């Protein structure tokens, strides 16, 4: 259902939303005063944060390209966010017009804008669902008719698993998603960390408690664990700019300042 200004009726404008704050940082137009105020407060504490978010987006683009090069033509992008420059379906369908994408986000504004952008694209849909209920996401992806779980797919979890607190068992969520994938599938994760971070980053993280989606920073070892027994591609789980940069000159002198690790793993058919 929509309100008269075209927004989904279920949107809560009394609290900032992580998706809309993120959209503001990326220069998007789908945010409100309450989101901008929080974004400015976070930005004043961590001037680097907008660059961090762009770096996350760049990591995702490079990872999607690597999957396309490996022949992947179907993507399940969970926590896909508000559409912005270089969306996964744009990167994927530019390389392979037959590529199919199911976007999933918990934020109704993100889903509404994604649907608007995808009008007329019969190989991409946006679904409103919660990563903490992975079975529902898998059901939705199956019933969309766009993803064939008997064939390899790319599962994208960029900047979203840190919104799942330990109490909601993120390792189990990941295990459920991995179990649904055919051999040859890939898993892409980027995740905020406390490792190598200055105090102001940790303070800014505390502000996320004001949104419905508080961030849980995790160690490299915990993040690596989310890939289970899948085979990590080189260079492993690294600070995001270090993951296969387009050019060595793209890598900041302090790649740790972007505050997140990224990695990509492949599900190799078990031996035997
Ligand atoms: C930082 S943005 C990342 C957007 C995009 N993946 C990227 O890398 O550019 C995180 C997104 O995750 C969504 N999100 C947070 N918790 C979620 C959950 N439990 N289930 C699904 N999406 C969630 C937010 O609404 C937001 O759009």
UniProtKB/TrEMBL annotation:
Keywords: Methyltransferase, Transferase. SUPFAM superfamilies: S-adenosyl-L-methionine-dependent methyltransferases. Pfam families: Methyltransf_19. GO terms for biological process: methylation. It comes from the Bacteria. The keyword Transferase applies. InterPro entries: SAM-dependent_MTases_sf (IPR029063), SAM_dep_MeTrfase_SAV2177_type (IPR006764). This is SAM-dependent methyltransferase. One of its GO terms (molecular function) is methyltransferase activity. It comes from Micromonospora humidisoli. Signal peptide: none annotated. The keyword Methyltransferase applies.
């Amino acid at each position: 259902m929509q309100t008269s200004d075209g927004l989904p009726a279920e949107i809560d404008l009394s609290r900032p939303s992580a998706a809309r704050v993120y959209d503001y940082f990326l220069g998007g137009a789908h945010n409100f005063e309450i989101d901008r105020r929080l974004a400015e407060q976070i930005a004043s504490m961590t001037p680097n944060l907008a660059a961090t978010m762009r770096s996350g987006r760049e990591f995702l683009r490079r990872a999607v390209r690597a999957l396309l090069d490996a022949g992947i033509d179907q993507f399940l992008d969970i926590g896909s966010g508000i559409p912005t420059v270089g969306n996964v379906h744009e990167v994927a369908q530019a390389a392979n017009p037959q590529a199919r994408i199911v976007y999933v986000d918990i934020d109704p504004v993100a889903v509404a804008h994604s649907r608007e952008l995808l009008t007329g694209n019969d190989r991409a849909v946006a679904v409103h669902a919660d990563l903490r209920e992975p079975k529902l996401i898998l059901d939705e992806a199956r019933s969309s008719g766009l993803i064939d779980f008997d064939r390899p797919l790319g599962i994208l979890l960029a900047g979203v698993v840190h919104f799942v607190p330990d109490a909601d068992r993120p390792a189990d969520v990941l295990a459920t998603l991995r179990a649904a994938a055919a051999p040859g599938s890939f898993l892409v994760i980027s995740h905020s960390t406390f490792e190598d971070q200055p105090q102001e980053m940790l303070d800014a993280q505390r502000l996320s408690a004001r949104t419905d989606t508080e961030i849980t920073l995790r160690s490299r070892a915990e993040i690596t664990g989310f890939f289970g027994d899948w085979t990590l591609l080189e260079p492993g789980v690294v600070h995001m700019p270090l993951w296969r940069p387009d050019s060595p000159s793209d890598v900041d002198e302090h790649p740790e300042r972007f505050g997140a690790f990224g990695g990509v793993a492949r599900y190799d058919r078990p031996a035997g």
